[in-house]
Amino acid sequence: MYKLSIDAMSGDLGSSIVVEACLSFMKSHNDVELYVTGKSEELEKLKHERIHIIEARDTIPMDAGIMSVRRKKDSSMVKAVTLANEGTTDGAVSCGSTGAFYTSAMLFMKRLEGIEKSCLMAILPTYNEKGVMIMDVGANAENTPEQLHEFAIMGHIYAQYMRGINNPKIALLNIGSESKKGDETHQKAYQLLAADEQINFIGNIEGRDMLNGDCDVIVTDGFSGNIALKSCEGTAITLMKLMKESLMSSWKTKFGAIFVKDTLYELKDRFDYKSVGGALMMGFSKPVVKAHGASNAKAFGNAMELAYQMVKNDVVGKMKEGLEA
Amino acid sequence: MYKLSIDAMSGDLGSSIVVEACLSFMKSHNDVELYVTGKSEELEKLKHERIHIIEARDTIPMDAGIMSVRRKKDSSMVKAVTLANEGTTDGAVSCGSTGAFYTSAMLFMKRLEGIEKSCLMAILPTYNEKGVMIMDVGANAENTPEQLHEFAIMGHIYAQYMRGINNPKIALLNIGSESKKGDETHQKAYQLLAADEQINFIGNIEGRDMLNGDCDVIVTDGFSGNIALKSCEGTAITLMKLMKESLMSSWKTKFGAIFVKDTLYELKDRFDYKSVGGALMMGFSKPVVKAHGASNAKAFGNAMELAYQMVKNDVVGKMKEGLEA
Q1: Are A119 and A151 in contact (CB under 8 A)?
Q2: Could A271 and B247 be called an inter-chain contact, meaning their C-beta atoms sit closer than 8 Å?
Q3: What is the pTM of this model?
Q4: Is the Cβ pair B256, A258 closer than 8 Å?
Q5: ipTM of this model?
Q6: β-pairing, A119-124 with A132-135?
Q7: B263 closest CA partner among A244, A261, A272, A263
């Protein structure tokens, strides 16, 4: 039986969508037990022999400063993390603030053995439908070459076991393609990645080529990874807003829009970073999955499924093996 | 009389577009003398009392490694830079490779007094029509807080005198808006910028907000500035390619495209980074302006106009004053 802890309280839309997601999840999974943290009076509908309610009176709101996590040991979020850390469950899911959830894991969960720094991974939409993993997207302000190497190994395992990509192509985000480009950290990281035979390192990648779909995992330091992710996001938002305004700019374009708006809105949705699926936390001893703060029940269910698959495939165990190799 | 040195040979399209641009420029400017470097047999049409041909037998091709510049002292590019450095002219224009031209300036031109590191500036398209200056976009792999402060001062002067922006808003590219965000370099840079009363520092800006048009100058270290610029570029290219494919995907969309394609192609042109105008080199003792490698005569003329305005407004002199203040 796989066990997941579920933070029911921290999302923007309250506990009801989590309740709905849990009930629906239990129908399709008969090998799972849930430990749902929150106020029991809001969780009364969760009557199921494989669902346990864990009372937690405190809530960490979406706009809470990440430092407040320290004082919120009785919150549904910290309790969900703690249950996983102490082994009651195999992983934790929350739709609270990314910063607070990541901080909860930093404070209340052991790091994966062999990992110096945990990180945040996001999947960006690409020209083809594959998408590309990028990590770290901002958990750290600075990284060492060794840490970037660890990110690459975790990315390699995740891409292989969770995204079904055989021998995933891994690149290092840098300011040029030659091995000597960038600062000392990136030059050394290049050497470490190139020397590691268990991964398929294809060299440096520039910001311009991130979305062309040619690579599966982009390794970055937390600073430039965050800048890269948000630059892509900002450009997509700006262009889509201008595209919409262009289509509404005259009677002629409004008429044309009738015929093209469906396909263009599909494109908009695909590049809507709000729906990209949040960031995944990597480098902890248990899977820690963040669903969107504005998640509906379906999105929350997807996050639960992700955590379930990570547990079932023992992705964290495989990362540990990869780091030891 | 203002004097410009013009590299006639280094562009993708050869010397003829430079010849055309020079002749047209002389018609509209009677206070300029040109020193055109290149093979005299290709410059025979440049018969004008205020145009001097400076023989240069060597050419630096667009795909030359930047290290080759060292050995190319007789090239049209290095000669154009040298003429400006020794005071024969007041500034230099080339449409050769950015890397080679920047290296030529690094090797053969004095830095502006008070500047530790020169840098590259690009102007990105924004949601409104203003555009935003971003610097450094990749001349340096690492920067100190003091260097970022120098970039801000140069940006302030340039925005004011060349872009006509009164009290330009200056922001620091970082991974969060709070002053304590980022690594030590960015935290210290924040303090230096905030303490400088001659500039209008509005705080940190995140990648997501770069193109929203709210600020005039974004100061970045060369590494993350390069990543940011190219991430924006890559996203714009990817989206525009997908938009075009969407419009061609069915008979229905093809019909609609007839009415919307003009306005969408305008948008595409606006975000076409090839036409954004190349990068400007900042921090040298004379204006050094790079026109596009694939420049036509009009684009080359624009670069000449930019150099002319920088000389006429003594922008470099004003930067020097700003750095001394």
Answers
A1: yes
A2: no
A3: 0.92
A4: yes
A5: 0.90
A6: antiparallel
A7: A244
